[in-house]
Structure formats: structure tokens, C-alpha cells
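User: Let's play a game. I give you a shape written as C-alpha cells, and you guess the letters that built it. Ready? Here's round one.
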């Protein structure tokens, strides 16, 4: 009897640990900005449908989380949901939300998913935006271009 229980425990414990490690994914927060908070009940589907935006007057953090294959834009539900930048962040999904535990907090913070894009597409868009910004800076700061405008 004791051997049977011991065998079951030895088989189930590693499986439960393996299941727990698979539910969490890792990514890095690369950008943060403050945006208008979404009213409760307006999740991913409401954001993606382009419905009317309800302005609550509050500012909430919006983060860009980069994983190996997907880039997520997530938004906090309140202004005090802050995540450290440029650190590896472990997260998981539950009911169309992303749950992140920050700095050994007793509970996970819930974030709304505002957008998802494949990482190669996001990197291409970032490179194009950076090239466009550099071109605009060079055009405005180039003395020859300034003389040509006069």
C-alpha cells in the first residue's frame, strides 16, 4: 500500500511541475506609455472590433511585451499596474487576459490584451518607422536642405 502511494506521488509530482512550467511563458517588456483606461468590460474583442471608445479620464500603462514568436500590446486596468522594463517577464493567459506576477507580489496582475502581431512583422514595422524617423531628422537638420528651402 505504501509503495503504491509512493509510486503515485513520484509519478504525479513531476507531471504537475511540468504542467505548471508549460503554462507560463516568458517575454521582455520593451516599451511603456500611459494611455486612456478602457472601461470595464471592454476587452480584446471590443478593442479589435473598432467600437466606440469610452473615455474614463484616467491614465493606465500600456506595454509592449516581446516573446520569441509573438509581440503583445497589453494594457493595465488601473494606473498602479507597473511592470519593470527590459527584464524577463513570466506570464500566462486566463480568460482573454494576461496574468503577470510582478516582483514576488502575492497576486498576479491582470492585463487586457489590446493587440497581437507576429514578431517578424513587428520587427519589420519597427525598422520602417525608425528609418522614416531618421530620414525626417536628417532632412530637418541638414544645412543643405535648409538652404534649398529658402
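Assistant: Ready! My guess for every position:
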Amino acid at each position: 500500500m505504501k509503495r503504491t502511494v509512493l509510486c503515485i506521488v513520484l509519478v504525479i509530482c513531476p507531471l504537475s511541475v511540468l504542467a505548471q512550467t508549460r503554462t507560463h511563458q516568458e517575454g521582455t517588456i520593451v516599451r511603456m506609455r500611459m494611455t486612456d483606461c478602457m472601461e470595464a468590460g471592454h476587452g480584446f474583442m471590443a478593442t479589435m472590433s473598432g467600437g466606440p471608445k469610452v473615455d474614463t479620464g484616467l491614465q493606465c500603462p500600456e506595454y509592449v511585451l516581446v516573446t520569441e514568436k509573438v509581440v503583445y500590446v497589453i494594457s493595465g486596468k488601473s494606473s498602479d499596474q507597473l511592470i519593470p522594463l527590459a527584464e524577463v517577464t513570466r506570464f500566462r493567459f486566463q480568460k482573454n487576459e494576461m496574468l503577470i506576477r510582478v516582483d514576488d507580489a502575492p497576486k498576479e496582475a491582470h492585463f487586457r490584451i489590446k493587440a497581437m502581431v507576429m514578431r517578424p512583422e513587428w520587427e519589420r514595422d519597427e525598422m520602417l518607422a525608425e528609418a522614416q524617423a531618421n530620414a525626417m531628422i536628417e532632412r530637418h537638420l541638414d544645412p543643405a536642405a535648409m538652404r534649398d528651402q529658402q
